[in-house]
TrEMBL record:
GO terms for biological process: endoplasmic reticulum membrane fusion. It is found in: Endoplasmic reticulum membrane. It is a multi-pass membrane protein. GO terms for molecular function: GTP binding; GTPase activity. Probable GTP-binding protein that may be involved in cell development. This is Protein ROOT HAIR DEFECTIVE 3 homolog.
Amino acid sequence: MDDDCCSTQLIDGDGVFNAAGLEHFMKTVKLAECGLSYAVVSIMGPQSSGKSTLLNHLFGTNFREMDAFMGRSQTTKGIWLAKCAGIEPCTIVMDLEGTDGRERGEDDTTFEKQSALFALAVSDIVLINMWCHDIGREQAANKPLLKTVFQVMMRLFSPRKTTLLFVIRDKTKTPLENLEPILREDIQKIWDSVPKPQAYKETPLSEFFNVQVVALSSYEEKEEKFKEQVASLRQRFYHSIAPGGLAGDRRGVIPASGFSFSAQQIWKVIKDNKDLDLPAHKVMVATVRCEEIANEKLTYMAAMEEWLQLEEAVQHDLVPGFGKKLTVILDKCLSGYDMEAVYFDESVRISKRQQLESKLLQLVNPAYESMLGHIRAKTLDGFKEALDKALERGEGFAIAAHDCTQVFMSKFDKGCEDATIEQASWNPSKVRDKLRRDIDAHVASVRAAKLSELTTLYEGRLAKALSEPVEALLDAASDDTWPAIRELLRRETKSAISGFSSALSSFNLDEADIDKMLIKLEEYARSVVESKAREEVGRVLIRMKDRFSTLFSHDADSMPRVWTGNEDIKAITKTARSASLKLLSVMTAIRLDDATDKVEKTLSLALMDASDGGATNRSIQSLDPLASSSWEEVPPTKTLITPVQCKSLWRQFKAETDYTVTQAISAQASHKRNNSMLPPPWAILAILVLGFNEFMTLLRNPLYLAVIFVVFLVGKALWVQLDISGEFRNGALPGLLSLSTKFLPTVMNILRRLADEGQQPAAPVLDRNHSKSFRSGVISNSSSSASSNVASSESEIEYSSPPRQQ
């Protein structure tokens, strides 16, 4: 064995005390040097319940453990002693032989009681090891053993303060908070039932015992969690005798040097005391026989045909008269027990009857719970159906929900009365509360759905009432656009809120909730207007061009404008662009509040006035008011088009409308030419040179025209070849001198080229192509000359309007 633990058998299985082994143990662990600074811990409990395993993990000892693969049998015989490893102060632990072992048999329990009494008398802390599922059982929980031990201990020894630490093994889902009161109540009952000497008649249990409870998980199934919990429990044994520790209030401590002698004397007294044998024969027989009868009745009940049919039926649906039927079945079992156990000890009989009744109720409880579940489900389904019908009839939501709730909760209560079992005091309040929560949850769900439908309805009405009018108002953009939109929004919102508020009154909502929903509806109305405005911003350029085109191309009577030459195109253009600029200024920001801004003025100064002032004013201007990403008096959240974007849109707008203006100017000029009463200038010149008769002769004879045309071509060719306009650029006399020297060579050159071209077979084609090229050049030059007469700047075209005819 490990030297640190120094495991020693203190008492063997026959009750022989190993005095020599104890002395050796004390010397090895140097117990005598500890004085009063030591503690004794022992453990007791059923055989094969894992006592040794627990001690080895808890204190680092090496007691022999049961090999599960070899079967369940006795491992520890007698009482073993060891020193705990690594715990201060020095702690001695005793491993007791398990109770209820088959090796000793059911009649030989003397050693069990003797070893338990010895542990209580010697130890400061007694661990009582028990299975979780044994709580509430008479024998498995060691209650008779403890009762006898308490009695004899009170008579044999001066009572000392001992800590009883109940260790619940293989803890189930039942919370420790529910198990601990049961154990404490059982210990208190044992203490109250124990006959006490006169001096201790009124002494409470807490005067001699400190009862504590701890629970551990299964070692086999949850080994890691078991080890964690044991490690946590180990911490409680450090400084266990200090104030506040597990054994902090112990009394009558024997010095460590006298521990061996004291233990031997205590064991001697216990061995010589005959009162520790079995209880009275009468009580023993009553206990055994009454328990057998109770087990027979429990088995009879489990196999009873009536019960099996009832259990099967209640699994699927409601069973009318469930409570009465089950009450009769239970009464039959309990009456049979009373008849067979009538002659046994009264206290034992009553105790076993109570246990039987408890077990029977445990057997039928699932069926009872199923019955309540069916009642709850049927009630909830009926409530849902009734509420839907009430709402379809047009009843107010709050009234319909309240009335249906009252009716169906009353039906549930009647169903629970029908399921009540007389032998049980079960309260269906938990199921009733769950039903009420389910009903409330359904009511809340339906209310939310109805409110959502109602909100969607009024939001849809608002959207329909606002979208198209707002679009029309924005399209007509004027000074009254946003005031009209605000009035429209106010009127439609007021109408919607009035109807919505009236509809909400049937839901019995809090004022705060109603206010929130109304505010949300108002915000939705504003969001519709804002969304529509943002949507229309994407078409602002198209609308500006449409407005310009409408005003520019139609007169005040909306008739298509005919450019006769009397119209002031510049004024018309300015008017049309001003209207387009008005539309742009309206669309720059959302103006649902009464606040004013200077957006229109800024745009007019920056775009219209700057254009009228020309380049001189723009050069004088030190700062471009549109060189910004925000307006001065407009919040960013309300801005639809920034100043920079306005400038870009205006530039694009002008670029796309300039062509329309140019076309109008051209149309006006053409109209003026077509409507002139005088002949063309060349005709007037011809009449003056030739005279009217000769001119008419020329017109009547096409040959003359051909000759004149040929002369014109030759003259044009000489003009181009001699560069007459360039020659006279330096003066008349130098020009004449230069032309006189170049005239003859130029004429000869032209004649030579004509002769060369006449010799080629494709001369006619070339002549036609040359003629076409020539005419194209003339036309091109004429177009260039005409276009050069139109002066334009980067941002505007200069227009010249003819004087109005008187």
